[in-house]
Design brief:
The complex is a heterodimer of chains A (about 200) and B (about 130). Chain A has five helices and ten strands. Chain A is an alpha+beta fold. Chain A has a domain of about 140 residues: Glutaredoxin (3-Layer(aba) Sandwich). In chain A, the strands form three sheets. A six-stranded mixed sheet of chain A has the order 1-8-7-4-5-6. A two-stranded antiparallel ribbon of chain A has the order 2-3. A two-stranded antiparallel ribbon of chain A has the order 9-10. In chain A, helix 2 links the parallel strand 4 and strand 5. The radius of gyration of chain A is 21 Å and the shape is globular. Chain A starts with 7 loop residues before the first helix and ends with a strand. Chain B has a single domain, classed as Immunoglobulin-like (Sandwich), CATH 2.60.40.1250. In chain B, about 0% of the residues lie in helices and about 55% in strands. Chain B has about 130 residues and is mainly β. Chain B is elongated, with a radius of gyration of 17 Å. At the A-B interface, helix 1 and helix 2 of A face strand 1, strand 2, strand 10 and strand 11 of B.
Chain lengths: ~200, ~130
């Protein structure tokens, strides 16, 4: 029996009907951002805090990382560009971890650990990963496009934000800049006595 | 969003419907058979209702060289068509049947990806004798 086909008019309407699907997914315009662009200190805003469990069940509280430079990366297992960055972040974690630096990954996979745990093992990710959700996404201004990466200074302020894949060198420059810039500054919670090399750490 | 015109279908006959899709320029979606199991395939599905023998035919994908995979990745981009075939049982009474379906996809450009989405579709089918 011959198959019946949709009329041209119907096809036109279906085109309009379906065409919206890619257009509705995001209003975020892609932009190329290959240069390190750490904000000056006065322009930096405090990073929202969160507490989420990592793959080992240990709680990760972002504010506990105050005193360190943090690369906070929103990613997902289905995101190709994110996959390109993962070996870079693994390198950064290895290279800078002894210089008060940490990478934290926030996986935005809908099925959570089911996909993320095997992925962490397959890709030998050596930094802490938590599972994100809409609430966390909203805290950071509705993270929609992945990867989205924030560089957080030692004072817990957002020094830069990158939406989309950028060059490894860009991240590295920013990490070094933030580590260098804060090298001489007293750590949060510490008081440096004037004219003294000693710092007295405030008890929590 | 405009409501599509009903697809004419005769009871006892096979129906073929082509659904044109257009992506935003610069974006692609994974094909129905991506090489990496973590990638989310494009999937069109229909609830059977009074119809049977559903078959969805996807177009030939474009092979795109992307930095995260060693070989070119099959994707759909630009304008393409998804073909659905199904059979209307002879016992289906004449009238309008709204066939519900879902289109699941996940779109990226060369620098970033957008979250996976599932959109609800309704295909009105006008059954006659």
């Amino acid at each position: 029996m011959p198959a019946q086909k949709l009329s041209l008019r119907s096809i036109r309407r279906w085109t309009l009907f379906i065409a919206a699907f890619a257009l509705l997914v995001s209003c975020t315009a892609p932009f190329r951002d290959d240069d390190a662009r750490v904000k000056n200190e006065k322009e930096r805003k405090a990073t929202p805090d969160f507490s989420l469990k990592d793959s080992t069940g240990t709680m990760v509280k972002l504010s506990d990382f105050k005193g360190k430079v943090v690369l906070l990366n929103f990613w997902a297992t289905w995101c190709g560009p994110c996959k390109i960055e993962i070996p870079w972040f693994t390198d950064f974690q290895k290279t800078y971890k002894d210089r008060e630096f940490a990478v934290i990954g926030v996986a935005m996979d809908e099925d959570g650990w089911d996909s993320v745990k095997p992925y962490i093992e397959q890709h030998k990710m050596n930094y802490r990963i938590v599972i994100g959700n809409d609430e966390i996404s909203q805290l950071f201004g509705s993270v929609d496009s992945l990867p989205t990466t924030l560089m957080i200074d030692r004072e817990g302020r957002i020094a830069s934000m990158h939406v989309g894949l950028v060059a490894k060198n860009t991240y590295e420059k920013e990490i070094q800049q933030l580590l260098e810039a804060s090298k001489d500054a007293p750590k949060t919670g510490a008081v440096r006595a004037p004219g003294s090399e000693f710092a007295f750490v405030r008890p929590n | 969003m405009p409501k599509p015109d009903p697809v004419p279908a005769k009871a006892g006959a096979s129906v073929e419907v082509k659904l044109p899709v257009q992506l935003r320029e610069g974006y692609h979606v994974n094909s129905n058979m991506p090489p990496d199991p973590y990638l989310i395939p494009l999937k069109l599905s229909w609830e059977s209702g009074p119809f049977t023998g559903f078959e969805v035919v996807y177009p030939k994908p474009v092979l795109l060289k992307l930095g995260f995979w060693p070989a070119p990745v099959p994707v759909f981009t630009g304008k393409f068509e998804l073909t659905t075939r199904f059979k209307v049982a002879a016992s289906v009474p004449p009238g309008l049947v709204n066939l519900p379906g879902k289109l699941r996809y996940q779109a990226c450009n060369d620098r970033m990806c957008l979250p996976p989405k599932t959109i609800d579709l309704t295909l009105p089918v006008s059954v006659s004798r």
